[in-house]
Each structure stands twice: as structure tokens, then as C-alpha cells.
Write a structure and sequence with these properties.
The chain has 406 residues and is of the alpha/beta class. It has helices spanning 45-57, 67-74, 80-91, 95-105, 108-132, 143-169, 186-194, 237-252, 266-271, 294-298, 316-328, 338-362, 368-386, 392-399; strands at residues 3-9, 18-25, 36-40, 174-179, 212-217, 222-227, 255-261, 280-285, 306-307. The radius of gyration is 30 Å and the shape is flat.
């Protein structure tokens, strides 16, 4: 535990002294593995700036972005995946992102990779020991055991490669597009969900000509909600361009909310696709307005959806919960932060390829020396993931992302 020292700070241009507590963490038990002193005093940006400027005037300097975490890595307190998890935790905007970063910080990725490396190191040592006794025809690892151990490693690497690929692809926000006929309440629903009047709302059909994008934070992720022009036959070149843009945005979206004005259920007959797919959710809008005729249309099982009102807020919580379940949870569940996936996927894929080559060699009459060479490649690639092997440019890329004030 850090030692605490109570005292006061005497700063230039301040008549009163500031009460302060110094927490002393001695090497090697501190975060960075070096001697550290934390100063705790009264809050407020002006006070903090004055304290920092006084320390700098007395010979201190401000830390570079990510410097404390880089020092922790260089001192062996963290591996690279844990260092990236620190940044992932800083940047986390959802509960799921924070949970992923914490799991990685706790060693989830490094521990499993470390276990695999230990097993492969043992296998490599046995193979190389057998090479020393090659002339005496002594086999320390039989081919059946070798094949089994390599297949186990390949299966694990394939799973990690798929998880990292999915995590890399899901690094962009999920996109949900609002579709439907003109004046179906799409823009009102868009404003109600993003919490601001971003889209122009009018009773005049065709008000929305271009598409608008807004961030919608949910429980497990933040999605990009896109409001588009209503689906109709283009009447002029501008309308034609709006329809084309809408089709392009819809084609790139992960999910569509098909908006139907519940006071005009005939829209469902004219514009609703033949059958809703898992990528389409029906939303009955303007639920605050009476419409007896709607009950018959909504009784059709193919058109079951969520009834909402942008005016009263009814149904919005249910809609957000459904989006969370169908959009956020469809993203990859790998306990890997995006920066780790981007950096490490090449190394994991290279390790997988080398392991597969080693297995092919083991299933033929190839020598143990060739198999051992492939295993060394696997071990070297995995070492780059956890930072047992690294270069200065890799460190620069990782720790330069720790931007102050981000």
C-alpha cells in the first residue's frame, strides 16, 4: 500500500496554503515499476493548472501521452495487450466496451496466448532434443502425439483469428437506417431517439431529401441512426438523387427500421417487403393518434412490430431494448479491444499459417527439423502479440493513441 503523508502546498501568487496528501509508491510495486508520488489536493481546473505549472517551473515535465503505461510495459508490469486494454478502458463509451477492456486488462488474452506458447515451447524443446539423438534413432515425440498437439493449437488459433477479424470489422459503429413512405414519422422518430431536433419535421410529404446521421447510445453499444428520404416514385432529378442515396445507405446498413404510419395501415400493403427478415424491424409510428382501422392490419402476423410515439415517448424504451438485443449483441463477443485486434490479427494469422504448415509436415515424412522451424515462427508471431518481441515503431503506434483530453 502507498504511504500517505499529510501536508500543505505553498504555491506562488496564492496567499493561502492548500491542504494536500502525498501518496508515495516505491519501486517495484508502483504502476510504472518506478518510484511514484501522487499529489491529492483541492479540485478545480485553475488549481490543477497552477499546481502543474509550479512543478514544471521547478524542473518537472508533463508526461507524454501514454508514457505512464509505456513505462509500466517496459518495466514488465504490463504486456502489450494489457497496455492496449488501458486505452480501451479510457475510450469505452458503453458498458460492454468497458467490460471487454477490463477482461483484457485482467490478462484474458495474454494468459491464453501465454498458455499456448508454453505448450508449444515444450513441444519445440522435445523436437530439438530429439534432433540431438537423431543418429541414435531415439524419438522423443511420436508423430501421433505431435499431430494431436498441433491440431489443438491450430483449432485455438483459428478461433482467435475469427474473433479478431470480427472484432476488427465491428470496430465501426453499427448502422440502422429508417425506411418507409413519405410522412411516415421517420424524422420525428429520428429526433426522439437521438434526443435532439436534428431532422426537419413537417406534415408536408417529402421534406427529407438527404440523409441524416445521429449517434444513438444504447446499453451495450452506440449505433449510427440514419434518417432517409421517403420511398416514392421520383418526380424530379433532386428527388431521384435522394432516392438513389437512400438506396445506397440502406444497402450499407446493418439493420432497417421499416416505419409505417399506424393511421394509414394501407402503407404496409403497398410498401412493406414480402416478409420481414432478421435485418428488418417493423415500427408502427404516431401511436399517440387514434386509428381503429390499424388493429386489423397489425393482426397480420407478418407485420408484427413495435408501436411508438415520438410525441409521448411510448414504445421508445421497448424499441431501444430490441435494438440492443438485435444489433449490439450481434456484434462479436471476443474479449479483445479493437486496437489489439487491428495490431495483432496479422501476427495471429501468420502463426496459424505456420502451425498449419507444421501439421502438414508432421503428417508426411518431413524431418522434425522442418517442423521445429515452423514452430519457431509460430512462437515468434505470438510473442509479438503480447510484446515479448517488439520494435520501437510498434510502441510509438500503440502509445501515441493515448491522446490527452480525448
Amino acid at each position: 500500500m502507498p504511504a500517505a503523508v499529510e501536508g500543505e502546498l505553498q504555491l506562488p501568487r496564492l496567499e493561502s496554503r492548500l491542504p494536500a496528501t502525498l501518496f508515495l509508491s516505491c519501486a517495484p510495486h508502483s504502476y510504472t515499476g518506478q518510484d511514484l508520488v501522487e499529489v491529492h489536493t483541492l479540485g478545480g481546473p485553475p488549481i490543477v493548472e497552477h499546481v502543474c505549472s509550479t512543478f514544471v517551473a521547478r524542473g518537472a515535465r508533463q508526461a507524454m501521452p501514454g508514457e505512464f503505461t509505456m513505462r509500466a510495459f517496459l518495466a514488465g508490469k504490463l504486456d502489450l495487450t494489457a497496455a492496449e486494454a488501458v486505452l480501451g478502458l479510457i475510450d469505452a463509451t458503453t458498458e460492454r466496451a468497458a467490460k471487454t477492456a477490463l477482461e483484457q486488462l485482467a490478462g484474458g488474452v495474454a494468459r491464453t496466448i501465454g498458455d499456448l506458447r508454453d505448450r508449444l515451447l515444450d513441444l519445440l524443446a522435445e523436437l530439438e532434443a530429439g534432433l540431438d539423438f537423431a543418429e541414435e534413432d531415439i524419438e522423443l515425440v511420436d508423430r501421433a502425439d505431435l499431430n494431436s498437439r498441433l491440431q489443438e493449437a491450430i483449432a485455438w488459433l483459428r478461433g482467435l483469428d475469427v474473433r479478431m477479424q470480427g472484432r476488427t470489422l465491428s470496430d465501426r459503429p453499427r448502422r440502422v437506417v429508417l425506411l418507409g413512405p413519405p410522412n411516415a414519422g421517420k424524422s420525428s422518430l429520428f429526433n426522439a431517439l437521438v434526443g435532439r431536433d436534428a431532422a426537419i419535421v413537417s406534415h408536408v410529404a417529402g421534406t427529407t431529401r438527404d440523409y441524416l446521421i445521429g449517434a444513438l447510445p444504447l446499453a451495450d453499444c452506440t449505433i449510427e441512426l440514419i434518417d432517409t428520404a421517403g420511398i416514392e416514385a421520383p418526380a424530379d432529378p433532386i428527388s431521384q438523387q435522394a432516392q438513389a442515396r437512400r438506396d445506397q445507405v440502406a444497402g450499407e446498413a446493418d439493420m432497417a427500421l421499416w416505419c409505417i404510419d399506424h393511421t394509414q395501415p394501407e402503407q404496409a400493403v403497398n410498401l412493406q417487403p414480402d416478409r420481414p427478415t432478421p435485418d428488418v424491424m417493423v415500427v408502427w409510428t404516431k401511436n399517440d393518434l387514434p386509428s381503429p382501422a390499424c388493429s386489423h392490419a397489425r393482426s397480420d402476423r407478418s407485420l408484427h412490430g413495435i408501436a411508438v410515439s415520438a410525441v409521448t415517448g411510448d414504445g421508445l424504451a421497448e424499441l431501444k431494448a430490441e435494438l440492443t438485443a438485435r444489433v449490439c449483441q450481434s456484434s462479436n463477443d471476443a474479449a479483445v479491444v479493437p486496437s489489439t485486434a487491428v495490431r495483432c490479427r496479422r501476427a495471429v494469422f501468420a502463426a496459424l499459417q505456420a502451425a498449419e504448415r507444421a501439421l502438414v509436415a508432421a503428417q508426411t515424412t518431413a524431418s522434425d527439423e522442418l517442423i521445429a522451424a515452423e514452430l519457431r515462427i509460430v512462437l515468434n508471431e505470438l510473442a509479438q502479440v503480447v510484446g515479448a518481441v517488439y520494435t520501437d515503431d510498434i510502441l510509438d503506434r500503440i502509445f501515441s493513441r493515448f491522446c490527452i483530453g480525448k
